[in-house]
Known about the structure:
The chain is an alpha/beta fold. The chain has one domain. The chain is built from 6 helices and 14 strands.
Amino acid sequence: MLSLAAAIGWNLFQDQLMRAALVPSAEFTAPDAATAPDYRTAGAWVSRPELADDPSRWTPKGFSAAADPQVAVFYVPPTTYLSRDRWNAPLDDREANERLGLFTSTQASAFNGVGAIWAPRYRQATMGAFLTDKPAAGAALSLAYTDVARAFDVFLSSIPQSRPILLAGHSQGALHLTRLLQERVAGTPIAQRVVAAYVVGWPVSIEADIPALGLPACGGPGQPGCILSWQSFAEPADPHQILDLYDRSIGLTGKPRQGTAMLCVNPITGAPGTAALASANRGALVPDRGFSDAMLSPGKVPARCDARGILLIGHDPGGYASYILPGQNFHVFDYALFWANIRLDAEARTAAYLAQAGSRGR
């Protein structure tokens, strides 16, 4: 009976329970300036080309990282700090760093077939910052973004000015990536160097956001210089937490997002608003025995974009139960569910970009 009561309480009050468990009660206090990561040093990065122990170079059996990558990848990791003790993560939190390595190995690795990956450690906002509208949450996210922006500057200064760039992020990392696109890429020569931007696990309005990001939404497979985004839910899906926040917010263009469609590029097809059978999925990573020795499972997960822009993956495919968020939200696995297809997608967009660049040079 206690278990049943707990389950009913969770279903009825899950939003309130999540806030109570994860939102810090303290006021926001900016961390000391001495805690800011120095991106000129290798220790401020989870991944960069010369690191000996780089989780982004992991691949499942049958794949390998590119020996001579032609693209530089800037990947912004998702939230891995869950404590409510403070609003921004310390860089030495052991549990957060373990999760950081795990996400980097299972997400950024999808791009190591085309690029050398740079992934910054940053003083990310804690998970609870996404569950409240307190001013402290906005301050924590802004501070996290300043770290990401500084890392991006060092990334740009460390690679040849002619090197193509692939941008990728997830969740909080995707949020910071949208701001980076708006403030550092749109309207600059950098935009001409972008192979693609994978803004995954964060809602992007086609009407209220895309015009401010300096790149178009991807319209089909193999198109270079465009933006992809999706958010994965099993059916029956209940994405009210995302839709409520989305409909209350103002887009990067200054227009309300309410009533606008979210960008949904199907990671299996590489095209927006499309559907794909599970047989078209070339391989999902399944964490049943841990990701360190994970095998790809082809044909496991279908995908289709609904009218609002949510990516639906059919009924629970199994193997992910311990980490599914409320509402059948497979947010944690936005990359893992489609790992092999994302890798192929990046390869196709890179090939198209390089072909265009070659023709411009002739």
